[in-house]
Specification:
Elements lengths: L4 E2 L5 H8 L11 H6 L1 H4 L2 E5 L2 E8 L2 E4 L3 E2 L5 H15 L5 E4 L1 H10 L3 E4 L6 E4 L1 H6 L6 H13 L4 E4 L5 H13 L7 H13 L9 E7 L2 E11 L2 E9 L6 H13 L5 E3 L7 H9 L4 E3 L2 E5 L2 H5 L6 E2 L3 E5 L5 H8 L2 H4 L18 H11 L4 E7 L2 E9 L6 E8 L8 H15 L5 E7 L3 H10 L1 E5 L3 E7 L1
Parallel strand pairs: 12-13, 20-21
Antiparallel strand pairs: 1-2, 2-3, 3-4, 3-5, 6-15, 7-15, 8-13, 8-14, 9-10, 10-11, 11-12, 16-17, 17-18, 18-19, 19-20, 21-23, 22-23
Helix pairs in contact: 7-10, 16-17
Length: 467
């Protein structure tokens, strides 16, 4: 399991080690976004294989950012850890806000995935030179507004903000709220409250910030962060009563902090019509996509119901309520199941009832986490074969156990081979894996008869069967 910790200001230095050089160009890959939106997204972080791994909460689901690699980071190892974390929790992995540069890698990694790219998530990216110069006909509107501003406020000056400016910043928020045009917009109100908290960090080295002053009065402010070659503007506010202040301030901020950057990211438009119109008027060079990958396993894509499989002596089919007594006897046979590798009783969250194990198998299939087959001889339940641990990359694990009364007749081998074939050629897996305890000679013999041994450790022998 990954040892995640909630993102706090105390973690800022560690996170900036990764974000300072990150070239993903998206606002989510920044310290500022994690701090500003932590009340909503509840971000947690961990370092895995030299990478920063972030887990956020979205509508009750855990979703992951794409790993940010450090100097010796292994992105694939970090992705594997994310997948294993989700498998152990019984959920499908979701990787969101995937930058365009990493989308192709995930498409090749996951045979099946739902992929979305929501328009309102996309960040607006600008050429710093465009915002510094506002040259050409496309910026004639901005230049005209700036002339009006300069005529009305000829002595307005831009300068970086510091702790000494905290009183002016507090007064700015009072002035801003007095003319705030979105007082009935819940999203805008929430964003404003987050922005006010974030501006208390103007003295931190992680950020750059600046303001326009008309005399002693602060009339515009912004806070940004440099990540790779991108200047990400987290907060950008100005008093609406000052005509033309926005383009003048955008230009001044770009001149102050954008000269050594490749892009300026002014973030998304939050599906706000006015904000979208404004951002488009500044002629972005790109709307940066943010892909959401929801990898799916083969059960989800190909299996509507557990089928009936036939072998020379056996029938394999769905476990039914009529099987509950025999199934319970199988699961609770401690002498046999010491080799199973999983404690069915400990895996239950609630006290054992006659239906407990049957209900687990049924729910696992409903969620397409596993397919449990009853192994039947002449119609009688004698064991179980289960295909589980689908890794969303074409692989799943197979296990089989037979009641003690029927051991030693090859039924386990027969059932195991049948489900492996079904997984490879009907469910369209590319690989079926299995393992057995080193002391379990019977399982070792069975697996060796139908699979290839590929590895071992102190506890297990590992096997695989490929298409």
């Amino acid at each position: 399991m990954i040892a995640f910790k909630p993102v706090t200001q105390r973690d800022a230095g560690r996170l900036r080690r990764y974000y300072a050089g990150c070239d993903y160009e998206l606002c989510e890959y920044s310290l500022g976004t994690k701090l500003m939106w932590r009340a909503k997204l509840k971000p947690q972080w961990a370092e895995v294989a030299g990478c920063l791994v972030i887990r956020n909460e979205d509508d009750g689901h855990w979703v992951f950012d794409y790993p940010v690699a450090g100097p010796d980071g292994d992105e694939d190892a970090a992705l594997y850890a994310i997948e294993q974390e989700c498998l152990s929790s019984g959920v499908q992995p979701w990787i969101t806000v995937v930058p365009e540069s990493k989308a192709a890698h995930l498409l090749s990694r996951y045979p099946y995935a739902r992929v979305s790219n929501i328009r309102t998530w996309q960040d607006y990216l600008y050429d710093p030179r465009d915002l510094r110069l506002f040259s050409g006909r496309r910026y004639s509107g901005q230049r005209n507004h700036m002339k009006k501003f300069r005529a009305a406020c000829p002595d307005a000056v831009f300068r970086p903000l510091s702790r000494a400016d905290f009183p002016a910043i507090e007064q700015f928020w009072r002035d801003f709220e007095a003319e705030f045009p979105k007082g009935d917009n819940e999203k805008a109100i929430r964003e404003l409250s987050y922005a006010k908290k974030m501006m208390k960090l103007v003295n931190k080295s992680w950020f750059v910030s600046g303001g326009f002053f008309d005399g002693a009065k602060l009339i515009a402010l912004a806070l940004a962060e440099k990540c790779g070659g991108t200047l990400i503007v987290h907060i950008e506010k100005a008093l609406y009563s000052y005509t033309g202040v926005y383009p003048a301030f955008v230009q001044a901020f770009a001149n102050a902090f954008g000269e050594d950057c490749r892009l300026i990211n002014r973030e998304d438009d939050a599906a706000d019509r006015g904000l979208r119109t404004s951002k488009l008027q500044y002629s972005p060079v790109k709307l940066a996509p943010k892909y959401c990958f929801e990898p799916q396993n083969e059960l989800l894509r190909h299996v509507d119901a557990i089928p009936e499989l036939k072998t020379a002596r056996l029938t394999l089919s769905e476990i039914t309520e009529d099987d509950i007594p025999a199934y319970n006897n199988l699961v609770l046979d401690e002498n046999r199941n010491r080799w199973w590798g999983y404690d069915d009783v400990a895996g239950l969250k609630d006290p054992i009832t006659p239906r407990s194990f049957y209900d687990v198998a049924r729910r696992d299939f409903e969620r397409r986490l596993a397919a449990n087959f009853a192994v039947r001889l002449d119609g009688q339940f004698i064991g179980e074969a289960v295909l589980y641990n689908f890794d969303c990359r074409g692989s799943a694990e197979l296990g089989c156990r037979v009641s003690a009364d029927y051991a030693g007749h090859g039924y386990g081998t027969e059932a195991f081979a049948a489900v492996a074939e079904w997984g490879l050629y009907k469910v369209h897996l590319s690989r079926v894996v299995a393992k057995c305890f080193k002391e379990n000679s019977a399982s070792y013999k069975m697996l060796s008869s139908c699979m290839r041994r590929v590895a071992e450790d102190e506890t297990f022998f590992y096997f695989e069967k490929l298409v």
